[in-house]
Design brief:
Elements (H helix, E strand, L loop, with lengths): L14 H39 L3 H61 L2 H28 L2 H18 L33
Helix pairs in contact: 1-2
């Protein structure tokens, strides 16, 4: 029936991933081959001993020659496994390097775009305008500070104190004098309990 929405999903597996997988599969096959040959070598060595016991020296010699040839094959297989593993590591490390380079490339492009938006001339202009504005404000502050007399300064301080007092409003003091003694409450007199009338 195909894809439900008719769109193919892009595979995340790259050619390098496939190559690494194939190399690892080859390595694993060689290791399996090594195990098989090692088991055969042990069997053939035991068989050669048995042949010598039985007095069949020529057959034992032929078997040992075959065993020696297989041992040489094992050495070659070990070298091939080492080469495959080295190649896998090289490919994987190269993939990491490619990702780093890609990241550097993206970062470089981003910096380039930011530099286009804000050139050195633009930065110098903004800094110059900021310094001008700060200098202008400083001049205004000096003019204002110079035009105030001592009386003005005193008036400003008085106004500040008045505003501070308004913010700290205290509760009003009652105008009537407080009573000297609080009258004591009269104690409740013990009333006699009503007697229960027995039902007749």
């Amino acid at each position: 029936m195909g894809n439900l929405f008719g769109r193919k999903r892009r595979s995340r597996i790259t050619e390098q991933d496939r190559a690494v997988l194939q190399l690892k599969q080859q390595r694993d096959k060689l290791r399996q081959y090594q195990k098989r040959v090692s088991l055969n070598l042990e069997r053939e060595r035991a068989l050669a001993r048995q042949l010598l016991r039985d007095g069949r020296k020529e057959k034992a010699l032929l078997l040992l020659k075959k065993k020696r040839y297989q041992e040489q094959l094992l050495d070659k297989t070990e070298n091939q496994i080492s080469n495959l593993e080295r190649m896998v590591q090289d490919i994987e490390f190269t993939q990491i390097e490619m990702k780093v380079i890609e990241g550097l490339k993206i970062g470089n492009e981003c910096l380039h775009k930011m530099h286009q938006v804000m050139s050195i001339e633009e930065v110098e202009r903004i800094i110059g305008e900021t310094q001008d504005a700060v200098e202008y404000q400083r001049q205004i502050d000096e003019i204002l500070a110079g035009s105030l007399t001592e009386e003005d300064e005193d008036a400003i301080l008085e106004e500040l104190n008045a505003i501070t007092q308004e913010q700290m409003e205290l509760p009003e003091v009652p105008s009537e004098p407080l009573p000297e003694k609080i009258p004591e409450a009269s104690p409740v007199k013990n009333r006699p309990k009503p007697e229960l009338v027995a039902a007749s």
